[in-house]
Sequence to fold (872 residues):
Amino acid sequence: MKVKIGDESCAVKRTPGRPRSERARQAILNSTLEFLEQRENGFANLTIEYVAARAGVGKATVYRWWPNKAALVADAFASSVTHKLFFPDTGSVCDDIAQQMQQLVKIFRSRRGHVVSAILGAGQSDSTLVTAFRDRFLKPRRVEAYATLRRGIERGELPKNLDLDHVLDALYGPIYMRFLIKHDGLTPEFVDQQCQLVLRQVLPCVKASKSLSKASGK
Amino acid sequence: MKVKIGDESCAVKRTPGRPRSERARQAILNSTLEFLEQRENGFANLTIEYVAARAGVGKATVYRWWPNKAALVADAFASSVTHKLFFPDTGSVCDDIAQQMQQLVKIFRSRRGHVVSAILGAGQSDSTLVTAFRDRFLKPRRVEAYATLRRGIERGELPKNLDLDHVLDALYGPIYMRFLIKHDGLTPEFVDQQCQLVLRQVLPCVKASKSLSKASGK
Amino acid sequence: MKVKIGDESCAVKRTPGRPRSERARQAILNSTLEFLEQRENGFANLTIEYVAARAGVGKATVYRWWPNKAALVADAFASSVTHKLFFPDTGSVCDDIAQQMQQLVKIFRSRRGHVVSAILGAGQSDSTLVTAFRDRFLKPRRVEAYATLRRGIERGELPKNLDLDHVLDALYGPIYMRFLIKHDGLTPEFVDQQCQLVLRQVLPCVKASKSLSKASGK
Amino acid sequence: MKVKIGDESCAVKRTPGRPRSERARQAILNSTLEFLEQRENGFANLTIEYVAARAGVGKATVYRWWPNKAALVADAFASSVTHKLFFPDTGSVCDDIAQQMQQLVKIFRSRRGHVVSAILGAGQSDSTLVTAFRDRFLKPRRVEAYATLRRGIERGELPKNLDLDHVLDALYGPIYMRFLIKHDGLTPEFVDQQCQLVLRQVLPCVKASKSLSKASGK
DNA sequence: CAATAATCGAGACGGTACGTCACGTCTTCTT
DNA sequence: AAGAAGACGTGACGTACCGTCTCGATTATTG
Fold:
């Protein structure tokens, strides 16, 4: 709880006693991810017992650093968050976003996708998990997305007064829905059509700007 | 070997032995729903032990009729599915769908919504659950939605060759996303705007029929 | 409870309703014995469920006629009591008894012996069972044994004022002990030696030291 | 890599991990004995659930150390075996053995006797139990008995070439029989008479007839 | 360099719920 | 009225993990 300000040059005040083992920390997070990445091994099936054994670590070591399974999974998820999800700047909002969406879908369809569905699944009965998902995954991406959309607005591709959040939900919602409910394929074609469907709607052309502009009250 | 003629139960060959107790069945489903409807009582916290005790029923009776917790919950949910989720026929597709979406959101925001999130949450590590959700809840509603959309097409409100499933995902996806990730409010205004955003084709102007027409190949 | 005396010619006043099925009764007792006769299938492993199923009978039919497992087994045992256990009259007490003991040991070593050990085993926690064993098996045989011993007394082979019960326990006790504890073989040789050991002791004087000397071979 | 030299615990490699709780072990064995010592609480009525609860112990702890109920009971019995069952050395085989037999009968007639009958009873359908009884109770006592008998042989009280096991069965068999079948009393008088009946060889020839005549009182 | 202190692995502990089995009772239709 | 069929509420089974707790061993800082 003591925050050292300034220079750490010579006197890095370390706590006495054996320091935390970085090897153990990594092994625990890795065995957690490894488990979640397997199909049909959701959060519910994950056991601390297994994680510890797989990591070659005592159970107490897990509990010493993570208060519960959810915290462990949230941490493991955060440490796995891909850095490949960026928005390019092609000059066309539609293309910028379509490309990022394709990357997202690729992740969702990979083994890493199981980690996402595990965290969203478990999050339905443990709000700390969805919170972790929003804070560590969703929001950072939204910030980038806002910028991309604003570029489009500046360029005149999109109307002003656009409810950015709504547009983004309109874009990504169907992807999350298919990802979680699996009632239909999460194909690249679907992604492209989805992107066009939504962004064509908000193209200047028309008059709909009013219905989409953010309600002043809220 | 007396054969009752004219008996209406002629073909209703009863199985021998004591018949299944309807009282027990109802009590089990009810105590399941009751539990899930409480906040923070997710699928994971639900125990068969509790369900049986609450229903005044032996555990074995639960296991006799439902192979696992997932099946029980799916059944309980299905049996509880409100019959208020219908599509009216107002003469306007947009209105028809908007009204049904509002009903859906109302359910999602009610205590019954917890059951849905419990199912979809647990379904992420138990595919039988999402399957049950799709079969018993999603598909029946889709069938009605198709009809509503087709009415709109016939009326000329919507273009022909529309990929109905995609349109429906575009409509409902954002609702499910906000419901499950809770990053933003699931308000009636949002629902209305969402409906208009997707179905704006109704109006003259644009009509991006090409991008939405079902890919011939598929 | 009404005992009809005399002629049953025309009006055998039977209780109304369907009469008890003799077939069922036999099938139940048989499947009970059949089970107990198998090695390692003691009383504890016997289930009414199995007996009923094996006999092709409803469980309730078993419970209608026998209040509990013990009563059933006691009945089954009684119905199986062999009639081959008699004492011959060879003119020598020792031979008379030795022959009967050999027959007894033969039964103990046969599959029927398992029924005896089952009933004595279960009897340790259910006194009705040992009672059944004493009344239906032990006592009838003791009556015969008394007669045999008295013949020997009359013949002068045995002393007067003999405690018959003690002598019989001295004779049979070791057999029951080996039968139940299985710490040593229940061989014909053992039986012969046992018979001689005890009866020589009670002979007027002799001192049969030889019969007690250990068999050289063993 | 410091090796302690001269350490007496050199070969006493302790197993890693938390050591077994002696408290739990004792509590489990005690609650087992306590239960069995009550009349009509046979082996069959004993539940691990009860033992664990009574001992203030998790069920798993019981199962961790004893594979089944039989092993537990055998252990509990063995641990309770009174150390009063020894053979004195009075100079007379008959007296040595008679005294030990009286002690045994005293145990059989006490509450501890229920444990013995529970073990032998249940042992009839679970061979591991009788085996445990033989190994942990019977055989150790036999070893002492052999020594006592051999002393008698050396002293000339008993003939050489005696089948020790048979003599011991002849001595103890009737006691076990009366203990298990309860057809007659297990009185101190019976024990004395039984001892004399079998070991009369000691005496020149005669006189034992009186001790075998039935006690007038009874 | 020894003392102190925190972490490590291992694994036993008291619990809770699991899913199964048999109990003894009941309800139904058939004989 | 008794039969077979079989569902019912009950309760113990033996197992799997939970999260906590000793252990001895290890690895740092401090006196």
About this structure: Confidence is low (pLDDT under 50) at residues 1-12, 203-218 of chain D. Chains D and B do not touch (no CB pair under 8 Å). Residues 15-21, 24, 52, 56-61, 64 of chain D lie near DNA strand E (CB under 10 Å from a C1').
